[in-house]
Amino acid sequence: MSDYDLETANAMLLTGRYLYVGFMCHQTIEKILKAYGTNCLMEVTLKMHSLSRLAERTGLDK
């Protein structure tokens, strides 16, 4: 799913839709952090959207 979001961000970049590029990149990173937290740490963080807080909770903020 995050691969699709990243491809969408690239398509938006090529058409000059920069606001959506930022949004789709945020979605991509959020999904990667949540997948890492769920699969590697066995911790579910579904209702959080802050990338900095997700990075802190997964220990990937350093």
TrEMBL record:
Domain HEPN positions = 1-62
Give the highest taxon in the source lineage: Bacteria
List the Pfam families hit by this protein, alphabetically.
HEPN
Stated name of the protein? HEPN domain-containing protein
